Amino acid sequence: MEYPSCREDSLKQRAVKNPRPYQGRGEVKKLLKVLVKRAGEFKLKISIGYLPSPLGLIKIIGQNDSIVSVEFVLHKDKKELISSVVREAILQLEEYFEGKRTTFDLKLQLQGTEFQKKVWNELIKVPFGSIISYRELAEKVGKPQGPRAVGNAVGKNPAVIIVPCHRVVRSDLSLGGFSGGLEKKIWLLSHEGWKIENGLLRK
Length: 203
Known about the structure:
The protein is α+β, with helices and mostly antiparallel strands and about 200 residues long. Among the domains are: about 45-95; about 115-200, Orthogonal Bundle (Arc Repressor Mutant, subunit A). Helix content is about 40%, strand content about 15%. The chain has helices spanning about 5-15, 25-40, 85-95, 115-125, 135-140, 145-155, 180-190, and strands spanning about 45-55, 55-65, 65-75, 130-135, 170, 195, 200. The strands form three sheets. A three-stranded antiparallel beta sheet has the order 1-2-3, with helices on one face. A two-stranded parallel ribbon has the order 4-5. A two-stranded antiparallel sheet has the order 6-7. The longest helix is centred in the N-terminal third of the chain and has 17 residues, at about 25-40. The protein is globular and about 70 Å long.
């Protein structure tokens, strides 16, 4: 039976006490610096603006170069931090209310489930002065038996007017609901050329 020599034992002990420095440590430090720099470059920049409109105060939130939220609010609950994308959204909404604009040209980054985003993307395709029923919208997103689920997604639209959820009505041309309030939906549809008679839409 062979036993390791005393010299071999001594070498092993020295290796444990004085481990060889990791040769790639410098490269790791360089990589970390690059990652930190890039994280700073991609840091989220939130901007907030408000628009007094015929329907009340509208709050617009931007994230970097995109719009993430457009909603009706009762008062200014956050300090304004205007960015170029929020300023452009305010300008386009002003033009819409003045009757000078029928489409919006804004980059959107809306947060929601994949199904909700699918519904919102279809809503954007509904042009000014047109309407779509909940059932028709359900068919377009591949849920012909799910108008209720579509209605829920419409109600959670984070960018009112720009994503025109006010153009969604019931199959019998009655108004349906609207997260901002039914009177706002009536105003918006009237602004786009519709008349409401006995609770039903008429051109």
